[in-house]
Every structure is written in C-alpha cells, then in structure tokens.
Amino acid sequence: MIQSLLIASLVILSLAILGCLYRLIKGPSMNDRIMSLDTIGIILLSMIAVLCMLFRTTVYFDIILLIGILTFIGTTALARYIERGDVIERTNDESDR
User: Fold this and answer.
1) Degrees, nearest 5: CA angle 43-83-31
2) DSSP 25-79
3) Over the stretch 25-60, which tens digit does the pLDDT of each residue have?
4) Which of 8, 32, 35, 43 has its CA 20 to 30 A from that of 81?
5) Where are the domains of the chain?
6) CA atoms lying within 13 Å on the CB side of residue 84
7) Which run of H or of E encompasses 6?
8) What is the reported pTM?
C-alpha cells in the first residue's frame, strides 16, 4: 500500500516537473523562468526524498543537501543578476586592493 502511494507521488511530481518545464520554455518573463527553475530544483529534491523512502535507504541524503544548496545559490545568483546586471561586484577603486 505504501509503495503504491510513493510511486503515485513520483508520477505526480514528474507531471509537476513537466508543467515547470513548460513555464521555463514559454516564459513570458525572466522572473517566471527563474521561479520555474527554482521549483524544478525543489521538486527534484522531493523526488529524491520519496525515492529514499521507497528504497528504505539514507544514502541519498547527501545528494538532497547538495541539490538544495545548489538550487539556493543558483536562484540567488540569478535574482542578483536581474537586479544589478552583475553577479559579482567589481570595483575599480585602488584603495580596495
């Protein structure tokens, strides 16, 4: 019973990723694309967590942590790029060196 529910949740999460891929390709704005990438990362995280429950193992916890960190850093960098036009600030001031 539990296994069939976990498999059903994997199917639903796969459909959610397809919906996010549609929004990623279709747009219409850059903010929609960034949010869909962030959502895809979170859904991927939850799919791996469901696989951990399905296989009754804890070996994928490091992967979950890594994807979470990369999703956060990527979303933050893209938001900063949209806001400022640059991810890393560069100064031309000689006193900063």
Assistant:
1) 35
2) HH-SSHHHHHHHHHHHHHHHHHHHHHHHHHHT--TTHHHHHHHHHHHHHHHHHHH
3) 998 888 899 899 999 999 999 999 999 999 999 999
4) 43
5) 2-89
6) 10
7) helix 2-26
8) 0.81
